[in-house]
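can u do me a favor
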């Protein structure tokens, strides 16, 4: 099973991807998590990505394409994977198509979580409050200014992907405003 989750920041992509990893026994490949790990380890990629991420902007297509291409070659991706936060631009989607073709792989579905934008800032604030309550570290881009920028980046660069995948006949849309279990059930219906 090879899936892509599309949707703005705070739409629930990460939450749903995590739930599906258990159900299907395939890993969640979050480019955001991979980049944050690179920043934490101060690798070359991490050093190049940090300021861009903190500002809520997108890291270059070249960097993320390479990270994803390497990651899907790992043995734990043999049965499939769930892409969360990638592709995020049309050139990344084109690169992914080429990448999969060269590896002899195909996507099973692209699932878009549709959400009301006004709810997203509230969700980000809740995520911050939950992280603080659990004694965790708040993401450096989970603040109102960077979040606004992330939403703008989404509108300008990522939203056109819906049309791209509608064009390939792979796009499935789910109401991301419903509660977590309902959203999961809707996704499972699509994948059944
Ligand atoms: P996320 O955890 O998916 O919200 O990603 C956090 C940040 O990582 C984004 O705001 C970008 O700066 C960067 N990032 C993650 N995935 C990508 C991607 N596919 N293309 C470019 N930048 C990305």
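np, heres the sequence
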């Amino acid at each position: 099973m090879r899936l892509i989750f599309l949707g703005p920041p705070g739409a629930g992509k990460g939450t749903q991807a995590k739930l599906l990893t258990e159900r299907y026994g395939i890993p969640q490949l979050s480019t955001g998590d991979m980049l944050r790990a690179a920043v934490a380890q101060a690798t070359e990629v991490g050093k190049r990505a940090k300021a861009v991420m903190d500002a809520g902007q997108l890291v270059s297509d070249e960097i993320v394409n390479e990270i994803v291409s390497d990651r899907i070659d790992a043995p734990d991706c043999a049965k499939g994977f769930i892409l969360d936060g990638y592709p995020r631009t049309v050139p990344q989607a084109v690169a992914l198509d080429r990448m999969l073709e060269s590896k002899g792989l195909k996507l099973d579905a692209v699932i878009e979580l549709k959400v009301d934008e006004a709810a997203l800032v509230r969700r980000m604030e809740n995520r911050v409050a939950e992280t603080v309550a659990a004694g965790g570290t708040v993401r450096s881009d989970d603040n109102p200014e960077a979040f606004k920028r992330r939403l703008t980046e989404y509108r300008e660069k990522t939203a056109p992907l819906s049309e791209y995948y509608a064009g390939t006949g792979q796009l499935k849309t789910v109401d991301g405003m419903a509660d977590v279990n309902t959203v999961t059930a809707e996704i499972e219906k699509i994948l059944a």
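Residues 9, 31-32, 35, 52-53, 56-59, 64, 85-86, 88, 92, 141, 150 surround adenosine monophosphate (CB under 6 Å). hope that helps!!
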